[in-house]
Write a structure and sequence with these properties.
- Two copies of one chain form a homodimer.
- By secondary structure, chain A is an all-alpha fold.
- Chain A has one domain: Tetracycline Repressor, domain 2 (Orthogonal Bundle), CATH 1.10.357.10.
- Helices cover 71% and strands 0% of the residues of chain A.
- Chain A is built from nine helices and no strands.
- The first copy, chain A, has helices spanning 18-32, 39-46, 50-56, 60-72, 82-98, 102-114, 117-139, 143-164, 170-183.
- The first copy, chain A, is globular, with a radius of gyration of 18 Å.
- At the A-B interface, helix 6, helix 7, helix 8 and helix 9 of A face helix 6, helix 7, helix 8 and helix 9 of B.
- The structure holds a DNA duplex.
Chain lengths: 185, 185
DNA sequence: CAAGTTTCGCTACCTTCGGTTTCGAAACCT
DNA sequence: AGGTTTCGAAACCGAAGGTAGCGAAACTTG
């Protein structure tokens, strides 16, 4: 059973700072915006060196994606009607995007991906795919329908965030839910 | 009547290169992506000096916005039923975003605006507002409803473009039209 | 305790890019 | 010809992503 207790590798162990870095990332992005939240500033806010960040994440984009994965966590999909499941998912992602720093970081890394195919691949495979698969399973919809659903919901929320700098208000989220549900009845 | 013939100002006149610059911008963005389409490369593609561009547009973002204004032109809103008007507007913007370079440029400048309030103001006032006002007039909807309509349509199209690198396919545009229309009946 | 291994912090550095400055040459009007 | 403005070219600045090198710190194993 040596493989099940994979004896800690030699050398100095990594300090458990991922959570600190994620928190520093969100707060820095929230305070300064995505572009001014440089890796150096994030490192300073986390109380570590910039090189330590680059030792763990290959690029700023990868750091942001991991940070978003940590911030979002799993999508809540407890049983209920299809309409309830979809409504809950929409309100959940809208709430997350409204949390301080999350929406800015999301919109920022999404924007960077527009002109960076490698980042786009990371974004698609690490961030979008897990939720897409969970939704396919919960809703019994084919992949392209779920991708369309994600485009509409996330696209709308990010467009509002990007144009106004603020998350979407609750009554518009209600309108979004009421518009999307009939299309997937 | 001296004011109606505003005697050309003295000095060397500006050469008529705006159209050349716009074309060079779109083709460069299309070939290299938004981030790699540097002002220097755009200028080279247009056969002019970088400083000439900065003499006419204060920032890269302002150049892109003017380029997009030129590329989009006025939204076609000839009379017809509300449904026909909205459907035509959706398909028109989807087609424009699908033109080479336009979608990339739009998504890129939108992304930059996320962390640049000044650019966001330019984007909102010069690009979004004219179309919003035209739609308010044509549809008889209040501002916040038209803004929601724009968030949904443009947000969805840009999210698809940003995640896949390609414009949305026709059948998904059909689904978008069929989802949006009942919400504005 | 000593050797070996890995991570950490720090500093310096490279490259790219947006944007500015400077200057001489060209184009236009009077 | 003289005045005014634009153009192209080149050098330059500052910010930011990302890298390299080094000594010190933190572990494991003998």
């Amino acid at each position: 059973m040596t493989s099940s207790t994979p004896a800690r590798p030699p050398g100095r162990p990594r300090s458990g700072i991922n959570d600190v870095v994620f928190a520093a990332t969100l707060s820095t992005v929230h305070e300064l915006g995505y572009a001014r939240a440089t890796v150096e500033r994030i490192a300073a806010a986390a109380g570590i060196a910039k090189t330590t960040i680059y030792r763990r994440w290959p690029t700023k984009g990868a750091l942001i994606v991991d940070c978003l994965l940590d911030a979002f966590g799993p999508v809540p999909l407890e049983g209920g009607s299809r309409a309830e499941t979809m409504s809950a998912a929409i309100r959940w992602v809208a709430g997350k995007i409204g949390e301080p720093g999350v929406g800015d970081a999301f919109a920022g890394v999404f924007s960077d991906g527009v002109s960076d195919p490698e980042l786009r691949a990371i974004l698609s495979s690490r961030l979008q795919d897990p939720y897409r698969l969970a939704l396919q399973d919960a809703l019994g919809e084919p992949a392209h329908r779920v991708l369309f659903f994600i485009d509409v919901v996330v696209g709308t929320l990010l467009h509002r965030m990007g144009m106004t700098g603020r998350p979407m208000a609750d009554d518009d989220i209600d309108a979004l839910v009421e518009m999307v549900l009939p299309a997937f009845r």
